């Protein structure tokens, strides 16, 4: 009995000498990201928040780097292991410095990755350098947490470091097996942690597992251990979350490369009985992108697709066709006095403009159906947001104007083929239907 009491006293003394702290890493980072820009994918804003947060932490710790020559003070294991009568609040702030330094480096890399025209060669080198910094600081964070943190904190820190390592390799397009191993390690930790703790924490862990899944499947696809097709990866890319943004950027690059390969064999564009040669590679890629989106929009799965997703797809189609028109009109400027080339380019511009008109009408018809459903709900439930009849009238006015513009465009020109005549008559009838529905 005396020995048992002595052993118990020794355990208590050991716990007092080596107390363990706890940080809910995932919850803290998710809250910071959502509140400071990443809800809108604004990595610049989040990076600035991390910088400001670090400045406050350094000042509160009196851990500044001097006013004259810059001499960085390193946060090492000795701060954790050699501290006596350690204040947990102070320790937490030192660890927050390491964590937010990793977050700042990662957000800076993601900021470069999501530039409008994509990172150029120099920016890509800088991007990879920032990701290496993020891996370095995340690894240090995991190392420090393993010394003084409880088991949960240490596991979360290891998962965070594994994710950063996987992200770096993912961006480098190399060592896919190692990247896969790191992503799987992170997923395994979050799967286990998702079984315990508060409901909020379990939900966050499950969300993180779902965000990691596409990257794991992409790595399997790259090393040839998965039969998943690129089109299926596109469906995965519809998911949301900061952990998926690099995957989406990579996937878009893959799709752009695939379109470029397909565009090499696309020499002509067929429209209402006409054949227009396409010599500009950028024009071909833009048209192919629009056609891929149109297949998804009019495919078998379109009936079950939410209206918000359809509207987003229409926006992407419009962007692709506008890019094509911009390329065509630039070619017209540089075509000189070559009449045959100018005629072909003008015909192609007319065809793309007509397709834009058709998709605009389809989009406005979708808006009418949404407005009508809200009008029905208003009659059934007075508390729901109402669609006023004036809004429907405005939408029908737009549709009438769209059909008039489209028929005028297709009717222009001297040599009209029968397909163009039939097309014009079809949209004249649609315009009459829209007028009747407006009334």
Automatic annotation (TrEMBL):
GO biological process terms, semicolon-separated: SRP-dependent cotranslational protein targeting to membrane
Q: Which family does it belong to?
A: Belongs to the SRP68 family.
Q: What is this protein called?
A: Signal recognition particle subunit SRP68
Q: What is its main location?
A: cytoplasm
Q: Does the keyword Manganese apply?
A: no
Which InterPro entries did the record assign? Answer: SRP68, SRP68-RBD, SRP68_N_sf
Please name the GO terms that the record assigns under molecular function: 7S RNA binding; endoplasmic reticulum signal peptide binding; signal recognition particle binding
The answer to keyword RNA-binding applying to this record is: yes
Where is the protein localized?
A: Cytoplasm; Endoplasmic reticulum; Nucleus, Nucleolus
GO cellular component terms attached to this protein's record? cytosol; endoplasmic reticulum; nucleolus; signal recognition particle, endoplasmic reticulum targeting
Task: Give the organism the record lists.
Answer: Acorus calamus
Taxonomic lineage from the root: Eukaryota, Viridiplantae, Streptophyta, Embryophyta, Tracheophyta
Q: Which UniProt keywords apply?
A: Cytoplasm, Endoplasmic reticulum, Nucleus, Ribonucleoprotein, RNA-binding, Signal recognition particle
Pfam families, A to Z: SRP68
